[in-house]
Each structure stands twice: as structure tokens, then as C-alpha cells.
């Protein structure tokens, strides 16, 4: 996984929708996640395999602690 900027958010959102449909749960609004990533200590990470984004997560950092907040993965 590598840190991704706001410019990669739409790829994460696409994974979130795919995960929601596959696992049948509700998401927060797209704007909720976008605003969350505007906070300095919250980061987006994406995992790639053969030039395709296959997973992503949002992580919060506080001191020396990292907390996994939201995640998504492709179905393939």
C-alpha cells in the first residue's frame, strides 16, 4: 500500500461502492470521506496489483498510534 493524495479519492470511492454492494452495508456520503481526508492526520492508502487499484483504506494517526478507520477492496 502506498499513500495516495486527494487526486486518487475517486478510485477509493469506486472500491467503497463495490465493497458496499458485495457485502451489503451502508456507506457514509461521498463528501464525508472526502472531508475526512482533508484533515492533516488522516491519510488514504491504495494497494495496486498489475496496474489496478485493488484495495484502499483510510488511517488516522495520533502520536505513535495508527488507527484503521475505513477500508474497501475489489471483488476480483
In short:
By secondary structure, this protein is an alpha+beta fold.
Provide an overview of this structure.
Strands 1-2-3-4 form a 4-stranded antiparallel beta sheet. The mean pLDDT is 95. The chain is α+β, with helices and mostly antiparallel strands and 76 residues long. The protein starts with a strand and ends with a strand. The protein is built from 2 helices and 4 strands, in the order E-H-H-E-E-E.
Task: Quickly list its features.
76 residues, four-stranded antiparallel beta sheet, globular
Using the alpha-carbon principal axes, give the shape: globular
Runs in which pLDDT lies below 50 for 5 or more consecutive residues are none
SSE succession: EHHEEE
Q: What share of the residues lie within helices? A: 25-40%
Structural class: alpha+beta
* Number of helical regions: 2
Distance between the termini: 17 Å
The proportion of strand residues reads 35-45%
The major β-sheet equals: 4 strands, antiparallel
Report the average pLDDT across residues: 95
Main β-sheet, spatial strand arrangement: 1-2-3-4
Question: Radius of gyration from the CA trace?
Answer: 12 Å
Amino acid at each position: 500500500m502506498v499513500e495516495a493524495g486527494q487526486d486518487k479519492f475517486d478510485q477509493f470511492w469506486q472500491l467503497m461502492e463495490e465493497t458496499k454492494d458485495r457485502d451489503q452495508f451502508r456507506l457514509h456520503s461521498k463528501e464525508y470521506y472526502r472531508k475526512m481526508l482533508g484533515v492533516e492526520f488522516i491519510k488514504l492508502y491504495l494497494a495496486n496489483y498489475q496496474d489496478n487499484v485493488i484495495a484502499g483504506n483510510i488511517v488516522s494517526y495520533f502520536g505513535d498510534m495508527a488507527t484503521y478507520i475505513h477500508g474497501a477492496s475489489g471483488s476480483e
